[in-house]
Specification:
Blueprint: H1 4-9, H2 23-26, E1 35-38, H3 44-54, E2 59-62
Parallel strand pairs: 1-2
Amino acid sequence: LRTPQQYRIRHLPGAQNLPMDQMDTWMHRLPKGKLILFYCDHGNFSLIAAKKISQMGFRTAALIGDVSCFW
């Protein structure tokens, strides 16, 4: 849920960048049988994305707060 520039600077190992402003194009490609973990810089977009995707039947979780502690 980060911008391409934010993703290039740093991201969690194995993460895929799914830009928030393109959610309608990628949400249908997510695997239904796996937990989808969302994160962004502060947690706002993560919560929005996790809620929307979970309403479509996906299992989701969101990291909230400053994710820099994971780098």
